[in-house]
Known about the structure:
By secondary structure, this protein is an alpha+beta fold. It has a domain at 41-122: Ubiquitin-like (UB roll). The protein is 29% helix and 21% strand. It is built from three helices and seven strands. It has helices spanning 2-26, 60-66, 101-104; strands at residues 41-45, 51-54, 84-89, 92-93, 107-109, 114-115, 119-122. It has a five-stranded mixed beta sheet, covered by helices on one side. A two-stranded antiparallel sheet has the order 4-6. A hairpin with a 5-residue loop joins strand 1 and strand 2. The longest helix is centred in the first third of the chain and has 25 residues, at 2-26. The protein is globular, with a radius of gyration of 20 Å.
Amino acid sequence: MQQETSMDMTETTTATEQARLSLSASAPASAPTAGTAPGSFAVKIASTGEMIDVAAGASIADALNAAGVRVETSCQAGLCGTCKLRYLEGTVDHQDMVLDGDEQQHYLTACVSRATSALLVLDL
């Protein structure tokens, strides 16, 4: 009986390792990066009306922080959700891996998301 238990554990471990390898193989080679969507755009702070330009190669988080609007970040790769912001207007190219379809209707990750519209209005 002990021999059967050892065999079962080995099979379980092997199955777990195969699942882990399968997940690794199907994951993207690299995390999304800011600037993948072409062109610059502007973000508007809803509470103040302040307009901030986001250059083609910059992230929303970087542009906001440079303008003195504090946005907390952590991974800078769209993996953690630390920089999740609510937006009120505009069209977003979501390049993160944390927001589900429902969240994407109202939120973006400022470290990697880009606008496909000329203006994004942020609920800040």
